[in-house]
Structure formats: C-alpha cells, structure tokens
Fold these 4 entries.
Entry 1:
Amino acid sequence: MDNLVTEEWGIFELDEKARENFFRYVKWGKSEISLDIFEDVFEELATSFISELLDQLPWFQDQAHQVLEQAFNKEEADLLFYLECEQELLEETKPERTWYPKAVLDELVLTGVFLALDQNHQMVITLDFSIDKEISDQILAVKFDAAKNLLGIAHES
C-alpha cells in the first residue's frame, strides 16, 4: 500500500484505517492546521497525485489570500458580511486594537485543508481561514480544483 510522501511533512503511513478516516493536525508555519482527506479521494486518485497536491499547498494558500483581497476590493457582500461579524467579536475580545474590515481580513490565518471529490468526482481543495479559534468558529472556505481554478468562497461554521 502506498504512503503519502510530502516535502513539508514527510511520510504519512496509510493503512486501511488511515485511508478511511485521514485526519491529522500538522505543523504549518508557527501554528498547526487540520489536514483532512476524504476516503473517496484515496479510492479514486493515486497517492502520488495526492502528495503532489499537498506539496502545492503554499501556492494554494498564496492564491487564496489574493482571492480574498480581490473579493474585498470588489466589496463582495458575503465576504463583507463575514468580516463585519468577525469585527464585532474582535472589538469585544480585543478592544485594545482598532478593528475595521481590512484589519479583520489581515487577521485571517489558515486553519484547515480538506481534499474531497465533488458530485462529479472532481478534486476539490478547500482551505479554511479563520480568526483566533478561541474567539470564533466561523470560517472562510476558499475552494479550488486540482487544475488550480477557483471554485468559490464560502462563509461556513
């Protein structure tokens, strides 16, 4: 049975149980993120392909930040609503700082990565961004396909 081999995290051994429920907390920068790979991904894609996608995580993260900046500059309603809600929480919990929507956007950090297949069996790479987990469970999910095309931004909890 093949294992996942990544530049960032090394080898993830994949026994049958890991292929059914792959979930790990992994070091990313100065913090940890959750890494979740759904079972159908292992059923339909080679582990070498999955490893390559994981190695491209820095690109996906940079691209996601650019997408969020562009959405902010275009004043997209869903993003602005999310930022306003999080701004209220930050004003209550961190009153020593002046909060405004752009400052909240800058506060977002990557907290999770999910690999799954959609209803058409196409790969979806989802990057979850959030402010401090102690303050809010709300996330902004930025989704891409394996060809690095943006699929969308969603406010989730």
Entry 2:
Amino acid sequence: MGAIGATGPIGFVVTHYGNEYVVTPEIAEIFLRQRRRLLDAGQGELVPLPHSRGVAMLWVEASVPCGTAPITVPDGEDVEAARRRWGLCRRRRAVRDTADAPPGSARSIEGPTLVSG
C-alpha cells in the first residue's frame, strides 16, 4: 500500500478545446509557463504536451480555450492507487543496464548503426 493522503495535487487535467489530458504536476507547470510566455508575447504556436496516454501537440494562443484543474487525493486515500487510477504511475525507463546489450539492440545506448551511400 502506498502513502496515505497527499500534500498537494498528484496531477492536473489540462482542458484544450474540450479535450482533457491528464498530466503530472511537473508537466503542468512547464505547459503553463509556455502558455504564459506565448500569451504575454501575443503569439501562438504548437506546444507538445506529454500526458497519461501519449503526447499531444496543442495550438496555444489567446483565443484558444484552455484550462487546468488539480487532481487531489482526499485524506485517508491511497496516493499510489489514485495515481494508477488517473494513469499517473511512475513509468520505468526502458533502458536500464546496457552493459550486456548487443550493439544496435533496443537496450543498447548506441542504437543502430546507420549506413549511408
């Protein structure tokens, strides 16, 4: 069983043109900072938003409806269970130890050898 209760939001729901994306607090902070920068400059651009189901490219400018709402865990509830429920589980890295991986394999840090010509 994980920790009980939370001191702050475990994530955020970003709403963009009626679509909802569940993100970690860190990603929400980065997204909101980029959005604020664009709004202050009076500009618009595509902003990548990594979320619980993948990555979305969102057009951000002043005329685009966009908002965020915190995801909180009530006192007494299991925080890790809530993260799993919202798709906010900490994912393990695909590459752990590359010492024994053959060159060009998915676990190799070198990656495939590219041949030109």
Entry 3:
Amino acid sequence: MVTNKKCKNRGKMMEELTGEWVILKDDEIIERNIDIKVILELAKKYEDRDITISKIPSTSYCFY
C-alpha cells in the first residue's frame, strides 16, 4: 500500500531528476516538455484518449 508520504516523496524525487516529461499514446511520444505544468496543459487536448504521462531522465543518471 502506498501512503501519502510515499507519494509526496516520490513526486519530489521526480521533480528533482533532470529530464523531460512526455505524453505517450500507443508507446509513441506525442508531446514532450521539461515543464510538468506545460505537459498537464497539453494533456487536456487528449482527455478523450488513453494516454500516459511519464518522465524520461537525463542520461546523467544511472539506476543500477
């Protein structure tokens, strides 16, 4: 179970990671921007579609 504290920490971590936010549809990037606020505004155009918002970290991060 994910608590609010975990969600807030995860959200803060995602904001601190450099990279770009994207909107995906059918595994293809249809919009991209470094500002999440811009992505959320762009997502309104796709309200009637099944989309995913994700962040692509910069290449300066290594996760292993």
Entry 4:
Amino acid sequence: MNVESIKKYIQDNPEIDQAKKEGYLKILSSPDVSKAEISEILDELEDAVQAKIDGVYADAGVVLDENSPEYKRQYQQMATEIDAAEKEFNSSMDEIDKEMNEVEEDTSQKIDDVKAQSIRDSIGI
C-alpha cells in the first residue's frame, strides 16, 4: 500500500474522526514522512478497524475470549485437524516421490536398453 492509497483510504473513510483525518493527512503529505510514521498511522488504522470488528461481534453477542475453555477447545480441534491434514499431505507427497523415483528408474533403464540395442544394431550383433 503506497502513501497515496493510504491517504485516499483515510479521506474516503467516514468512520475516521475529522480531526484524526486532518492529522494523518498532514503527516502523510509531508515530503519527509518517515516509514516509522507511516507504520504508526497504519497501526492506528488497523487498531480502529479491529475495534470496529470487535464491536460488531460484541453487539451480536459473540465474545472471542482466547482464555475461555470453549475457545481453547475449538482452537485445539483446529490445530489437530491442521496437523492431520499436514500428515496426510506429507504422506501423499512421499508416495508421489516414491512413484516418481520408480518411474524415473524404469525410464532410465529403458533408455539404457534402447541405447544398448542401438549400439548392438550399429555393430551388427
């Protein structure tokens, strides 16, 4: 995201307080704006968006508490499913590698046989 797109986002966003908009735009319009200043503004914008998301969840009665037993259980279940999927993927890849090596060896042997036959044919054996 470049400075111009950040400025456009800020200008077009009705959720951002006018005073904050003016402050952000003043900083971003400065010819010597630093990466640290841009990063700080992006962090503040991200925090504001996350607060808005959290507010929507709270209004809907959904509480995302990482310390709740239900959250931990769901997270552990997700982690277990990811591990199982990764193991299955790795197993499938191992089988594919094994098949590929067998095909490669077979192909190499057939090429060697064709070369040998070609040499025999060229010398009349």
